[in-house]
Automatic annotation (TrEMBL):
GO terms for biological process: gamma-aminobutyric acid catabolic process. Belongs to the aldehyde dehydrogenase family. It comes from Rhodoferax fermentans. Residues 21-478 form the Aldehyde dehydrogenase domain. NCBIfam families: SSADH. This is Succinate-semialdehyde dehydrogenase (NADP(+)). Keywords: Oxidoreductase. The keyword Oxidoreductase applies. Transmembrane segments: none annotated.
């Protein structure tokens, strides 16, 4: 699939440190999850390389932060243009290594680029404040300055968007970055880095340290322990987020964390059922269920339960599973064997505890799993507590609004939540009661670049995108001038 790139020079397999491509002491394989075939071997960097990348980012920082906001903005805008001009190639690279269907991959490239565009614009609006003085002989001001060298550790499920959502605001604010992309999807990340160089991002301002699973742990330790790195942004599992927080405690780093979710999707008796079915399908089966905002638990009120289950199961049975390069496929492979095993464990547990299989249910040849729906789900099932991160939808029945809210909130996670109702009072009540960072009422997909994306509880810290997305990369300095 990678032989068909319009620009083969986008296929980089070395890491980027201080503007130079480095081969690393060893290499690691990148596989196509749809076929199991090897796509490339990529530089496997270690702790010493991470130190070098941090030093390069630190050396590049003074010149980058001294540029005017408009100069940085123009360079970022150029990066945006190049990402969009190469949308097809970036999409192909992503489908090859990540598996998501090609139209979805191209959609992610546009989503990723939109953060670069947005923060190129926001770069010009990192405004300070003047405050009323408490003494006429003084003047009081607030400066907003770049925090310094930032590290970004990103996951495989959005190989490019999770990079730009962190890196664009960092660069816009005047920070420099060291990125450790996911070991399963480094090729999309490296192509984005190559385009950053072509856009004129200076050497050392954007560094990309690729590493296999073991070396990622070592690189993560270096990034956390460094005095120079002032901020770590991580998207991934809650478990790894906790490790990074603990490792960052000795250097008191600022952190942005986008961790696991366990999204509820609630359908009330007064909902538009057809719309709810579409929303549930889009939310649940996007990226074959492998996103942190995918619905994990579907709660349906008793009055429409049977109707919803029947229509939803029928819709799910229309899904087309296959290689993401094939026409019409909307369900690609899962990323790795462990992901398949987790889905299988959740489905079998649900069936063993009285669940009723209404669609799918089994593994297919290779790394594919049938889109699955189990009705009559109950709170004692694994899928009620753990994030499945795959194409399995358990459907629970409830009676009252309060019961649905309580069930939805009965989790340590708090990222995305969804509900369907036509009652405007209920929209307010339920939106306010859901303990989640994001609420979708009568929608199943809600992310875009100019809204604050993030979670509460153990789903994370901070917000990405929107004008709030700049805050984590900026320090506030109070300036008091006397003797006027
Ligand atoms: P996922 O749930 O997306 O598989 P992980 O949290 O395991 O997520 O991984 C997300 C990112 O975190 C990847 O880039 C991975 O290499 C990195 N990572 C995993 N474990 C560690 C660790 N102990 N220290 C630093 N980075 C890690």
């Amino acid at each position: 699939p990678l032989s068909q790139l319009k620009d083969p020079s986008l296929l980089k397999t070395d890491a980027l440190v201080n503007g130079t491509w480095v081969t690393g002491a060893g290499r690691f394989d990148v596989l196509d999850p749809a076929t199991g075939q090897k796509l490339a071997d990529v530089a496997n960097l270690g702790a010493l390389d991470a130190e070098a990348a941090i030093a390069a980012a630190n050396a590049a920082w003074p010149a980058w932060r001294s540029k005017t906001a408009k100069e940085r903005s123009i360079i970022l805008r150029k990066w945006f243009d190049l990402l969009m001009a190469n949308q097809d190639d970036l999409g192909r690279i992503m489908t090859a290594e990540q598996g998501k269907p090609l139209p979805e991959a191209k959609g992610e490239v546009a989503y990723a680029a939109s953060f670069v565009e947005w923060f190129a614009e926001e770069a010009k609006r990192v405004n300070g404040e003047t405050l009323p003085q408490f003494d006429n002989n003084r003047r009081l001001l607030v400066l907003r300055q770049p925090i310094g060298v930032c590290a970004a550790i990103t996951p495989w499920n959005f190989p490019i968007a999770m990079i730009t959502r962190k890196v664009a605001p960092a660069l816009a604010a005047g920070c420099t970055v060291v990125i450790k992309p996911a070991e399963l999807t480094p090729l999309t990340a490296l192509a984005a880095a190559e385009l950053a160089i072509r856009a004129g991002i200076p050497a050392g301002v954007l560094n990309m340290v690729t590493a296999d699973a073991d070396n990622s742990i070592a690189v993560g330790k270096v990034l956390c322990a460094s005095d120079i790195v002032r901020h770590i942004s991580f998207t991934g599992s809650t478990e790894v987020g906790r490790i990074l927080m603990a490792q960052s405690a000795p250097t008191v780093k600022k952190m942005s964390l986008e961790l696991g979710g366990n999204a509820p999707f609630i359908v009330f008796d007064d909902a538009d059922i057809d719309s709810a079915v579409e929303g549930a399908f889009a939310s649940k089966y996007r990226n074959a269920g492998q996103t942190c905002v995918c619905s994990n638990r579907i709660y349906v009120q008793a009055g429409v339960y049977d109707a919803f289950v029947a229509k939803f199961a029928a819709k799910v049975k229309t899904a087309k599973v296959g290689n993401g390069f094939d026409d019409g496929v909307n369900q690609g492979p899962l990323i790795e064997e462990a992901a398949l095993q987790k889905v299988e464990r959740h489905v079998q547990d649900a069936l063993a505890k009285g669940g009723r299989l209404v669609a799918g249910g089994k593994r297919l040849t290779g790394q594919f799993f049938e889109p699955t729906v189990v009705a009559d789900a109950t709170a004692d099932m694994l899928c009620a507590r753990e994030e499945t991160f795959g194409p399995f939808a358990p459907v629970f029945k409830f009676n009252t609004e309060q019961e649905a809210i309580d069930a939805a909130n009965a989790t340590e996670f708090g990222l995305a939540s969804y509900f369907y109702t036509r009652d405007v009072g209920r929209i307010w009540r339920v939106s306010e009661a859901l303990e989640y960072g994001m609420v979708g009422a009568n929608v199943g997909i809600l992310a875009t670049e100019h809204v604050p994306f993030g979670g509460v509880k153990q789903s994370g810290l901070g917000r990405e995108g929107s004008h709030h997305g700049m805050d984590d990369y900026v320090e506030i300095k109070y300036l008091c001038i006397g003797d006027i």
